[in-house]
Amino acid sequence: MMDRFTVGLVQMKCSTTVDENLAIALKKIREAAGRGAQIICLQELFRSQYFCREENPELFGLAEAIPGPSSDALAALAKELGVVIVGSLFERRGAGVYHNTAVVLDADGSLLGMYRKTHIPDDPLYYEKFYFTPGDLGFPNFDTRFGRIAVLICWDQWYPEAARLASLGGASILFYPTAIGWHPSEKQQHGAAQLDAWRTIQRSHAIANGIYVAAANRVGYEGTAESGLQFWGNSFVCDPFGQVIAEAPTDREEILIMECDPRHMEDVRRNWPFLRDRRIDAYAPILQRWRD
User: Whole-model pTM?
Assistant: First the structure.
């Protein structure tokens, strides 16, 4: 059985300057490593503000190849510090083909692989279908120096199918780099319920799969007064029983550090053997869009 490992989640504000955001992220990774984190996850699209608030072809200029400048900078720091880094990038795969992609850098600086966001939203101020091609790498697991992990991204959080498939690969933890927040006009009436739903669905993935779940969200207000998003932070880690064991605040930057123990997964899965009792012979209809 794998040893205990310590995760670090970086919750940060983003400016309009790409180089500044990268520099801050690298600084916070150093801080997390200095506090004992072995596997460090950044928030979704940390290099810039959340540009999907509008449909603007000029913003494709933010994309970069992988390997590229940002992944190279993360890889170099991973090697220097001896830590694993999960970084969410705007990937330019080719002319006209772009992805929302997470890279996994092992503790020796090597690129273990990538996960491309599978579920792409299209909602007011979340116009991601304009920018991103749906992922085509499936739901891989990554064997890092400190443990086997899986990575999903933001909107994937709402899909139990994705969490299940990632968990069936043997991962000890699901990481969710995230960029989610309130439309300010909705916050007073719906804000508490929206945040609770977001937290609850991810706790449910932990419970249903007997796995640790860690979500790294951004924080701060981005956009104009008339058309902006207030990112709600609240990055958190929950255990395989669904209990929140570490959580960041709503209104400020934070680095969460939390130890995870795969032996706890074993205990939970023995007592709640949901994976044992799955009826895989009965689930073929789930592949249909709708049951007419």
Answer: 0.97
